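Quick one:
INPUT:
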């Protein structure tokens, strides 16, 4: 029997895609990585995933899991390999409002989970621009971050349990609903962020939070970035750590935004050196119930804090969202980041994280270093400033991979000197393999390799990703 015949027996012929039917899986979202798989197999149950992996394991065939294919590091591309799509495993198995959990399959699209829990007055707080396509299995496998990490943590912090199919087809049941479980090694955390190199995640138990009853949202301009951390800290103190988003958009980002998306003109223009997009949220009646003058206390608190900052000369101006429509427009400006960056080429994308009080130093030192390495290099930056994560794309004139890697290495140098990481939230995939070789602690890398061999002795799960070849 051929491979596709074997797989068709397990999942049905209609669920083994070949030829032009695999087109939407052949390229990543950025259009950087290409390669058609031999076939895309689409199991509908955990038992089918298990049977598929038993078959591929026996035959020694590499398998690459894929969710929404919105990853930004080429991690789900599978040239000449079998791609295993979770898109049919899209059931929300249960929402348990009292326990504040959702039990979901890996193929549930993030925005669908948002809608489903909203009906219960709850939120699954992970959110970012690709939420309409990215799937829970992909979010888990990349340990996705996004704009609300400073309040709720990244995907790992939002996960209680996992179901995983190991490379040989064995099913591991870690579907705990527990907030405490110290029964040995934390295997769940091993699979979160593993980018499909250790097994296939088929389901998860996720934590939910109460849905905010009020938001106070604003865009704030500054003539330099230094006072932004003061603003964040004052807001956290004033609101009891209720800041949900604190995003950095410099002038060159705003100008590009207006160029590509003239429908999203920012309320304070494009010329201020720094724009911060921020949002504070609350659930408590004392913060959300309007007073006699019709003012929402949360909004008043934000206005007061911003007013104080303006009086001290620390901010230039602020525009509050006065309606849900205005709030959504502000979010759209930030979430257009990937779309407006995609067309800028040649580029070297960096997704770095440094301690909060070193972001300004990072930006200054990186710009100086780039000028030394390549005078044509210009940073194009947007960032989750509230957690120290900068998407530090460098535009340059050269398509030469050696010149591009020199840029990446220079950014890594500065990041490392400041105690940072070369990979904050997008993962490693193929894009960051050279950085792994250069920057990951060698002992940690060796331990990762041992874990990989222990769980995937034939090296069949998403080969060539995350771990650089020796
Ligand atoms: C417009 C845009 C905005 C974005 N913004 C953010 C952001 O703010 N923060 C952020 O963190 N990311 C962001 N991303 C990146 C991306 O959306 C996330 O990495 C997302 O979590 C990927 O989910 P996916 O379902 O598309 O995964 P895919 O791209 O399909 O896969 C990603 C990785 O996970 C593996 N994988 C997928 N499903 C499984 C599974 N069930 N079991 C095992 N392995 C699996 C794949 O093999 C691959 O290694 C953005 C992307 C875009 C296009």
């Amino acid at each position: 029997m051929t491979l596709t015949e074997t797989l068709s027996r397990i999942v049905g012929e209609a669920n083994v895609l070949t030829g032009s039917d695999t087109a939407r899986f052949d390229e990543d979202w950025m259009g950087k990585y290409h390669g058609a798989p031999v076939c895309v197999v689409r199991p509908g149950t955990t038992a089918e995933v298990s049977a598929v992996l038993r078959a591929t394991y026996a035959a020694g065939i590499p398998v690459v899991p894929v969710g929404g294919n919105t990853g930004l590091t080429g991690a789900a591309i599978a040239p000449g390999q079998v791609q295993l799509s979770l898109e049919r495993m899209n059931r929300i198995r249960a929402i348990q409002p009292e326990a504040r959990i959702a039990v979901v399959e890996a193929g549930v699209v993030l925005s669908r989970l948002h809608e489903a829990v909203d009906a219960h007055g709850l939120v699954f707080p992970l959110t970012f621009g690709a939420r309409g396509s990215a799937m829970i299995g992909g979010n888990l496998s990349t340990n996705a971050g996004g704009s609300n990490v400073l309040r709720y943590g990244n995907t790992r912090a939002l996960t209680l349990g996992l179901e995983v199919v190991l490379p040989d087809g064995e099913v591991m049941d870690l579907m705990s609903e527990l907030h405490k479980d110290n029964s040995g090694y934390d295997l769940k955390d091993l699979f979160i962020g593993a980018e499909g190199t250790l097994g296939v995640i088929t389901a998860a138990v996720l934590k939910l939070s109460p849905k905010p009853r009020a938001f106070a949202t604003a865009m704030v301009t500054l003539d330099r970035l230094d006072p932004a951390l003061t603003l964040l800290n004052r807001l956290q103190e004033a609101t009891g750590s209720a800041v949900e988003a604190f995003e950095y958009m410099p002038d060159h980002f705003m100008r590009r935004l207006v160029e590509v998306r003239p429908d999203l003109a920012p309320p304070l223009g494009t010329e201020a050196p720094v724009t911060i997009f921020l949002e504070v949220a609350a659930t408590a009646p004392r913060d959300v119930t309007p007073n006699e003058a019709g003012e929402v206390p949360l909004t008043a608190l934000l206005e007061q804090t911003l007013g104080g900052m303006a009086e001290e000369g620390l901010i230039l101006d602020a525009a509050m969202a006065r309606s849900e429509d205005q709030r959504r427009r502000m979010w759209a400006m930030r979430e257009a980041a990937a779309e407006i960056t995609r067309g800028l080429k040649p580029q070297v994308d960096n997704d770095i994280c440094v301690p909060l009080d070193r972001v300004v130093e990072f930006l200054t030192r990186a710009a100086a270093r780039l000028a030394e390495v390549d005078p044509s290099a210009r940073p194009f930056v947007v960032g989750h400033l509230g957690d120290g994560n900068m998407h530090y794309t460098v535009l340059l004139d050269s398509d030469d991979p050696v010149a591009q890697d020199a840029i990446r290495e220079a950014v890594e140098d500065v990041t490392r000197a400041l105690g940072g990481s070369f990979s904050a939230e997008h993962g490693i995939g193929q894009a960051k393999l050279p950085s792994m070789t250069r920057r990951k602690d060698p002992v940690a890398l060796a331990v990762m390799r041992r874990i990989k061999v222990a769980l995937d002795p034939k090296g069949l799960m998403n080969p060539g990703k995350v771990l650089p070849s020796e």
